[in-house]
């Protein structure tokens, strides 16, 4: 018999009033416990509802973060500049390289090589027999290589004479592209621009590559000057491209955000089936009534562009 049972028996032995008091105390205690249970149950219900709302909100936020131009209607400019990671390649079980039946590009021999190096056999054999009149079996192999680059320096010389009778001066001018006492030619400048603006090498590495390939030490400033000269030389052709798009029957417009000079800017493109014109601008056409090929209102052709809200405003211009 435990202590609680002993207490009940002692109370019962005393008198009925003691039993009544004990039962009332127990009833009050039970009521208090029931109230506590109800309160806790209500809190549990509230917390479960709150947790459900939080899960929905978290799912919505995660979905919003995971949205990009590939899986939603968001434009590419909203994707940011973090490199996208794609790992959808499935293992095929095949070895790397060309597969059976694959048509590769085999290096073929040419009929007229630039240089022929012959390795002839001796005129006599090891035992003194003459091999002069013995027919030889000829085999050939060809090696394709590049010649060692070498700078070619061309000096232009002009002359000037003065007539001793009339005093008239006769002189020849240098070619229009020869403007400095010493300068790089078109091929060298083409190599510089190829490395910096096609292969996208930093100036330091482009200068290093120029030196390694040609043996000529080129400064980073020279690379910039070559790019400036190219830019100025292309002004005419670029304007022709721009005008051809303006005069076309149909032009396509688009834009995307880029990082330039430490800030976000807009790369605009206007194109036809034969020409494309690119331009970087501080704002989009919807904000500043300006497209990549000038004021949209000056274009008499049909424009094709996106249907999102910002581009629909173009119809008002």
From TrEMBL:
Question: DUF6444 domain location, by residue?
Answer: 41-106
Q: Which UniProt keywords apply?
A: Coiled coil
Q: Which InterPro entries match?
A: DUF6444, Transposase-related, Transposase_IS66_central
Pfam families attached here? DDE_Tnp_IS66, DUF6444
The record places domain Transposase IS66 central at 183-282
What are the coiled-coil residue ranges?
44-71
Annotated protein name in UniProt:
Transposase
């Amino acid at each position: 018999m435990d202590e609680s049972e002993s207490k009940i028996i002692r109370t019962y032995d005393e008198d009925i009033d003691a039993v009544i008091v004990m039962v009332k105390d127990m009833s009050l205690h039970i009521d208090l416990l029931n109230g506590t249970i109800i309160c806790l149950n209500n809190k549990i219900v509230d917390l479960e509802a709150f947790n459900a709302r939080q899960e929905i909100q978290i799912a919505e936020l995660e979905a919003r973060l995971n949205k990009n131009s590939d899986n939603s209607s968001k434009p590419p400019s909203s994707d940011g500049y973090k490199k996208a990671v794609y790992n959808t390649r499935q293992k095929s079980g095949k070895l790397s390289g060309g597969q059976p039946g694959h048509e590769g590009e085999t290096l073929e021999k040419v009929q007229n090589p630039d240089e022929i190096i012959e390795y002839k056999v001796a005129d006599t054999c090891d035992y003194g027999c003459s091999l002069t009149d013995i027919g030889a079996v000829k085999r050939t192999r060809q090696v394709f290589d590049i010649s060692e680059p070498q700078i070619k320096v061309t000096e232009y010389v002009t002359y000037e004479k003065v007539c001793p009778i009339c005093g008239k001066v006769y002189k020849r001018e240098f070619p229009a592209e020869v403007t400095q006492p010493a300068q790089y030619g078109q091929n060298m400048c083409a190599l510089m621009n190829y490395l910096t603006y096609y292969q996208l090498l930093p100036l330091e590495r482009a200068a290093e590559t120029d030196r390694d390939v040609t043996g000529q030490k080129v400064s980073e400033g020279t690379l910039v000057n070559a790019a400036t000269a190219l830019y100025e030389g292309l002004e005419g052709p670029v304007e022709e491209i721009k005008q051809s798009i303006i005069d076309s029957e149909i032009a396509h417009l688009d834009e995307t955000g880029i990082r330039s000079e430490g800030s976000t800017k807009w790369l605009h493109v206007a194109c036809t089936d034969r020409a494309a014109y690119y331009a970087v601008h501080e704002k989009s056409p919807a904000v500043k009534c300006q497209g990549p090929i000038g004021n949209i209102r000056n274009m008499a052709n049909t424009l094709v562009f996106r249907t999102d809200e910002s581009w629909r405003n173009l119809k008002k211009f």
